[in-house]
Amino acid sequence: MNALIDNPEALASGYLAMAQVFSYPDAGAWSRLTERGLVDPALTHETLEAEYLAAFEMGGGKATVSLYEGQNRPDLGRDGILQELLRFYEFFDAQLSEDDREYPDHLVTELEFLAWLCLQEHAAVRDGRDAEPFRRAARDFLDRHLAAWLPEFRRRLEATDSAYAQYGPALGELVEAHRSRLGEQAPQLGELQ
Fold first, then answer.
1. Separation CA 178–CA 1 (nearest Å)
2. How far apart are CA 33 and CA 57, in angstroms?
3. Residue 186's pLDDT is what?
4. pTM for this one?
5. Span of the secretion signal?
6. Are 33 and 39 in contact (CB under 8 A)?
7. At what angle are helices 45-52 and 27-35 packed, to 10 degrees?
8. 2-191 has which fold?
9. Contact 67, 109 (CB under 8 A)
10. Residue ranges of the domains in the chain?
11. Is the separation of the CB atoms in 181 and 7 below 8 Å?
12. pLDDT value at position 193?
């Protein structure tokens, strides 16, 4: 993970990989995940899809793990979270996909936005422009959103016997590496909650 710390482009790749992992695993997604080594090819598409549904949609007799920030932070009210996220996206003119139709507080949407901020930072540095606005935005977004609900999400995910449980620590490490790079003074993810 150390190679990620000083490289916003690598951080973006990490966020996009995690976004792929936590996206619905249709046949095409499963192929991409296995080709990139993100999922063991021994785990068939059908099995991965069943694992996804059991973990995030139906529970399979257990409580599901929500992929939505607003459902992981009910004390704040989902409407307020959605409005704040939309303001973040709108400020940077980031458009939500018309095809996916995911809510702004979906884990994948938040991961993709952080990847976009990292890529904007990388482009600014490459082009000799000020990258600090993108760093500040990423720091603020992490503090207000992903890092704020990730501990509870991870706790619940890692308590499942799902194939997805293995990705909780990797996602946590990615976020911590990014926060460390940004000089974050907030508590570590394990200290939150």
1. 10
2. 20
3. 42
4. 0.90
5. none
6. yes
7. 110
8. TorD-like (1.10.3480)
9. no
10. 2-191
11. no
12. 38
pLDDT at position 190, please? 45
Please tell me the predicted confidence (pLDDT) of residue 6.
74
pLDDT at 156 (0 to 100):
93
Contact of 59 with 77, CB cutoff 8 Å: no
Rg (CA), the chain: 16
For residue 135, give the amino acid letter. Answer: R
The closest of 172, 188, 156 to 71, measured between CA atoms, is 156
Q: State the pLDDT at residue 60.
A: 62
Measured CA to CA, the distance from residue 159 to residue 79 in angstroms comes to 28
Spell out, as residue ranges, where the chain has pLDDT lower than 50.
Answer: 185-193
Q: Which residue do the tokens 């016997």 mark?
A: 161
CA 46-52-54 angle, 5° bins: 100
CB of 146 closer than 8 Å to CB of 174: no
Determine the pLDDT at residue 61: 61
